Amino acid sequence: MIAHSFKGEVFGPAQRLHGATYVVDVEFRRADLDANGLVVDIGRAGVALKTILEAFAYRNLDDEPDFAGVNTTTEALAKVVFDRMKAKIDSGDVGPGSEGLVSLKVTLRESHVAWAAFEGEL
Questions:
Q1: In terms of Cα–Cα distance, which of 43, 3, 27 is closest to 81?
Q2: Based on CB atoms within 10 Å of each CB, which residue in 20, 46, 72, 100 is the most buried?
Q3: What DSSP state is assigned to residue 93?
Q4: Predicted model pTM
């Protein structure tokens, strides 16, 4: 759950302060399973995601220095979560075997008809 506003006529009434609630999905991909039959340690990945999302929860993103001058669209937020998860993967926070990950996809769902994703190679 976040609050934010947008700059630009294209956003119409969303230029005013409003709230959004997202369900966040992260998809980890690799070419082959590791020696334990895993793509990633889902427990550690879940903890990493929780830590990332706590930085946004119940905040007005317009007031956060990390988002100064940024329209915090669903797409932009998906990229921020992607970048922060990539950093956690690179630092080993999601556990051994994460070096075999080849790509990542982050999807933010605001409703059953409104969602966006950002994906890329690792």
A1: 27
A2: 72
A3: T
A4: 0.94
